[in-house]
Amino acid sequence: MKDAFGLPQSLLVLGGTSEIALATVRRLVARRTRTVWLAGRPSPGLDTAAEQLRGLGAEVRTVAFDALDPESHEAALGKVFAEGDIDLVLLAFGILGDQAHDEREPLNAVRVAQTNYTGAVSAGLVAARSLQAQGHGSLVVLSSVAGERARRANFIYGSSKAGLDAFAQGLGDALHGTGVHVMVVRPGFVRSRMTEGMAEAPLATTPEAVATAIELGLRRRSETVWVPGALRVVMSALRHLPRTVFRRLPV
Ligand SMILES: NC(=O)c1ccc[n+]([C@@H]2O[C@H](COP(=O)([O-])OP(=O)(O)OC[C@H]3O[C@@H](n4cnc5c(N)ncnc54)[C@H](OP(=O)(O)O)[C@@H]3O)[C@@H](O)[C@H]2O)c1
Q: Where does the sequence pass through the membrane (predicted)?
């Protein structure tokens, strides 16, 4: 069960090798989390992540999970919830894709959409049902500022995150009053494996900063978290710019 400050004792990460997710888990293990499930595509990276968390004192198990195989989500998550209550599900999987390449190869673009959006619709609904059945818990969804307004430079990824964000908000409203809390996290540019080698955007941040914001959001039971917080104002302004102006911005 969560403590009086809303921090979890047990958690499940969907996308178990995500740098943002692992920074968050390390932070929560340093607080109160004891049981960690890392769900992801089996790989040496997943095993290493589990081993490192064990080194911090957590009891860690891995489970095979592929966002692109929604038919397997029920069984994968069912295995985890059958072992005991889960206080926090962190939906962290996602791919950035390669915009220029994916515009030329529509099937690659579809893969981005299926991973980030339809994979999350399936896993999110399965997780929500299990959390609702136990009567408590949080579902934290890693969305992105990229979903706030589609940019020329990455509208394939951006549109998948827009869909994910809208889905997670609606799910949060559907679960309001059930004891299950949904928190949408919108980071800007985060220095992680996903953005390695890319030119940094303004207000770039780190996985650790996202982890800090997630912890604070859990304590406050927030519904939306921007990282860094200043992006809320920036994006609110950008969102309302006329298309003709927005199109010319170097974003
Ligand atoms: N980095 C940023 O600038 C940024 C900004 C805003 C939002 N985000 C979002 O934050 C989340 C985590 O990103 P990150 O920066 O931590 O990147 P990351 O380290 O590259 O993590 C991405 C995760 O997604 C997993 N994944 C990809 N395809 C999958 C699939 N088909 N099935 C299961 N897992 C799959 C990867 O697993 P494998 O090890 O199997 O590849 C990895 O665990 C993503 O949703 C991302 O869109 C990132």
A: none
Ligand 1 centroid vs 99 CA: distance in angstroms?
A: 16
96 CA to middle of ligand 1, Å?
8
pLDDT tens digits for range 175-194 = 999 999 999 999 999 999 99
Kindly state if the Cβ of 81 falls inside 6 Å of ligand 1: no
* Domain ranges, ordered by start, for the chain: 10-246
Residue whose Cα lies nearest atom 11 of ligand 1: it is 92
Q: What is the reported pTM?
A: 0.97
Using only C-alpha atoms, what is the Rg of the chain?
A: 17
For the record, the structure tokens of 93 come out as 């999987």
Ligand 1 centroid – CA 86 distance (Å): 21
- What is 10-246's CATH topology? Rossmann fold (3.40.50)
Burial class (CB in 10 A: 0-12, 13-18, 19+), 183: buried
